[in-house]
Structures
1.
Amino acid sequence: MTFGEVVALYPTDLQIPAGKTTVLIGPSGCGKSTILRLIIGLLQPTNGHVHVAGGGDNLVALRRQMGYVIQDGGLFPHLNARENVLLMPRQLKQDEAAMNRRLTELCNLTHFSMEALERYPVELSGGQRQRVSLMRALALDPDILLLDEPLGALDPMVRASLQRELKEIFANLGKTVVMVTHDMAEAAFLADMIVLLRAGEVVQSGSLDELRDQPAEPYVNEFIDAQRSLVQL
Ligand SMILES: Nc1ncnc2c1ncn2[C@@H]1O[C@H](COP(=O)(O)OP(=O)(O)OP(=O)(O)O)[C@@H](O)[C@H]1O
Ligand SMILES: [Mg+2]
């Protein structure tokens, strides 16, 4: 995937397992968000192709099969939480009772208070906004969930509790999840498979144990150690 002179991704061969959680991790600019945009079809690869099992050629249908939380959440500031979550269901003219049922389910799932649904994004805490973004991505009950740093910019306590909640949600829903993070501990906690990238290339993919015990190159150890030394402060 190139943008003019910029190579965002070198030739990349990556298989993402269905029904599991795959975490993309690596330094800023290594191509994590680009991979999500390619999966959902917002970008067409300059060369090669992206194949989604069970997905046809229809881009609109393909997108509806996927829930996507963009980096920074992407909530519309002029819509309240309820309107943000129900954006797609309304677009598809679902009936009001069904939408309200779904809204209640989603609030329970993400531990979001129903009273806060009337609030606008500026009136919500960071953690609440993240929950609204997640509810919006889940509104149509998609098979595939793409999450771009869904817990970025949260304080460590809220982050830890949302990590536990996400893990529970992923386990309960059994969906195919592709999530981006900068945090190896978060990746280790949530991922069935970790994909470590560097400057547009996949360096290694596998479980944390595999990355730690059979590193493909010294960079893998360096990346894990750099994060570990921070934790030991
Ligand atoms: N539309 C675009 N036009 C030009 N360059 C782009 C475009 N989108 C991404 N890039 C470049 O492609 C590379 C990969 O970007 P990408 O957004 O995938 O990084 P990332 O791994 O998500 O980084 P971060 O952790 O900072 O979010 C970067 O060098 C970026 O500047
Ligand atoms: Mg990004």
Note: The mean pLDDT is 90.
2.
Amino acid sequence: MVEDEMIKYRLNGPASQERQRIRLMAALCENRFPQAVVIDGTPGIGKKALAMEISKALQCTDMFERPCGQCFGCKMAADPGAADNWVFPLTAAEAQAKSAEDVKAGSRAKTLQDIKQGYIEQIVANPYRTDIFDAGAEISVNLIRAMKSTFVMKGDRTRVVIVAEADRMNDAASNAFLKTLEEVPPDTYFVLTVASRERLLPTIRSRCLAIHLSSLTDAEVKEETLRMLGDDADEDQVSRDVIGLSLGSPGKAFFYLENAKALCGLASDFIVKSLKNDYSALFEELAENDLTEVSEANGFLEVLSFLIADILRKQSGAAVRLPDTMAGMDMDAFPRVDADALEMALATVQETMERIASRRSTAMMCLQSLAIKLFEGYK
Ligand SMILES: [Zn+2]
């Protein structure tokens, strides 16, 4: 016990999430770390990164400072080959892959372990990314059973299983996981990451310590995004619009690096051409941008909402979120567009997003009718 008290725990991460880490570090130091923790927060803010820090700290065997980053335990926590330490959503086809033990010698078939290893490599390389798993992937009961079956081989080492995007467990998987939580094997810990805790079974929630992770500051988003870009990163790559659109999420900033410029440009054209009733040019531009998928069309409308809200902010003298795009917007040319018109436009965009999501008509038709309806009565 005296030895335990000498061990220092230090979980790394952005300064604005320090308060949550202090709670976890205190539990580690006092040797009362809960067997299950659920980390929630918006996508791309570093929930998996914190889960990996916890996994290292629990598996580390250094006598002075944990995680040390050097010992076998620390290395296992970040080793893509240690696929048993992870559960995450897979597509139906991926989840059906055989496990290594069931594949004939010499077979070239991809095993479940191979598939998982590929994903873990991506997570370890950039835990902030929000687009690693397929939109239709889920955590099936087979994946929970496969995890359970490895417990017998654990030996006496500390075992940490990260259940990433745990709110994508289907009903059967949730029930199987609940049973696991009811009888956690000794020296075994679970760290769940979820966008919303409300989507977990209440009986699972009640067995986990809840850690709510907050968004990062703009400066931290910039720092983390530059880190993701690596050594040859150029500061100009992370524009002010990218930071504004990210809303404190480095994962979102990473996504917008590629397409913020195109989406913001299209959004400002959408507003101006719609006000000028210049529909044929606008429809052509929309077609060129190929916004046929629901997620792509609604991703664009999110940016359009941002821009409309920014015009409102500018009119009321508040700071804008998309300074680069706003610099090119001349709303003085449209004197009738006042706060009421902008509020109404925001509601119309929201309605269109719902219509697109309902899939009753094609995304392109919804966007075209939005162009006509936008600022109706104020043009
Ligand atoms: Zn270590």
Note: The chain has two domains: 2-214, 219-373.
